Every structure is written in C-alpha cells, then in structure tokens.
Amino acid sequence: MNTAIDEAMNEAETLNHSVVSNERWVSARKALLTREKELMRLQDQLARDRRALPWQRVEKNYVFDAPEGRRTLSDLFEGRSQLLVQHFMFGPDWAQGCPSCSYMADHTDGMTVHLAHRDVTMVAISRAPLSQIEPFRQRMGWKFNWVSSNGSEFNYDYGVSFKPEDFSRGEVDYNFHLTSFPSEEAPGVSAFYKDDSGQVFRTYSTYGRGVEVMMGTYHMLDLTPLGRDERDVPNRMEWVRHHDRYDPAPAAQTGTAAGSCCHDNA
Fold this sequence. Notes:
Shape: globular
CATH architecture of the largest domain: 3-Layer(aba) Sandwich
Structural class: alpha+beta
Distance between the termini: 25 Å
Number of domains: 2
Helix content: 25-40%
Low-confidence stretches: 8-14, 237-243, 249-266
C-alpha cells in the first residue's frame, strides 16, 4: 500500500480513524486517486471486452405470461433493439420475491426511462405465476414490466432455476461452473439484441457477484465510512430485509420462504 495512505489511514480502526491535517489528507487522497484511475481504466477495458463477446442465437420460441397477455421474448423488446432481463428469484411456491432481488428491483423504475432513451427495454422475469407476481409488484409499488416464465424452460436454459434432479449430485451449474447453491432459484442479469430481421441473440449474462450492477445504493455505500458489506457489522442491512414492504402480513406468510443468496456466491 502507498506510504501516504499508510500514514494517514492505517493507524485507525473502523470509525476510530486518525484525524490529520489538510496537507496529509490531500496527499493520501491523491495516492488513492491513482489507484482508482487504474481500476477505472481496467473497468473501461472490461466493458469493451464485454461488448465484444460473441453472441448466441436464441433458437427457442420462449413465451411468457404478461398482464397484457402472452408475450414472446421478441415481444418483450417493445420495439427497441436491446433488452435487459433481471432474473428475479421468485419460485412458484414462494410467498414473496427474494429480499435481495427486491432490493435490486427498487432501483429499476428510476432507470427505465433513461434506458428506453438509449434503445434498451428492461424487464423482470420469474418462474412464479403472474397471479403471484402482480400482487407482490403492486405491494412493492413498482411500475417496471415483470412477466412469468412459468411453464417455460427459459429460467432453466439461462441457468437461474434448477430442477430437483440438478441437486442430486450436490452441485448445480451456476455462473458457468458447478457449485453448491441453497435454493432452486438464483439471481442473474442477461442482455439480448434483436436485429432488423427479428432474430434475437443473447449477448451477455452475469450471475452471483455480477448482479450488483443493478444496485446504485450498493455502490454509493462504498463511499461511506461503514461501507456496504453487511457482514462487517451485525444487522447492517436489516433495514433492507425487514422493511414493511418486504414482510407481508402474517396470514400471507405461507409457502417456501425466499432465500437471500444473491451475493453469497462469487
């Protein structure tokens, strides 16, 4: 670590940080800025590499249940050429959606208008039937499009739902490798492109730690003294998991409880 950062910051623990002069603070901050710019350049290159990834043609005709009726994957683009999908963890026998996926979805409505002006449509897709999705969406106060893939192979094909037989070997194929996973549903984000002929391609998918790309609050917390990592301080994220919108009335708490495993798997 840089000497200036060592002198100004390493003497302290958690919130018991040393207080230094403006000269020492600026020196430490400039040293950290050098490292931030290195990371920024790596992120810019990674974004270019991500866009250069080969595409995968979507061969199946996936059909979803939407409030307006049955919709194909092509229909979900809503006249635009790019589609972003949040693979929202909400199983058919769950009483409510995953709390961590809900935390991500809290950021969606503010993004949709800006995405739309850049030729991108965003939609959430879950295996829960529409009759379960719609009441939960309304309870949460969300406006974004959310459709059901119930009865479709979509979730299985895109690696975010697992069948009982998938667990028989003790590991499931998630995030492009075999790993243990505590739930039959998993989080992810996928990007699709539709060309002028109407052919649809998958251009990218991200899982596990990749899904925090949706969470603006998550990144803002990195700027604060305590940071974002709820594992450092007990109950740090309790306000997310136990907000009154996430906990239904006792009578509604039936079925399998939604897990909170969005960030446990790297």
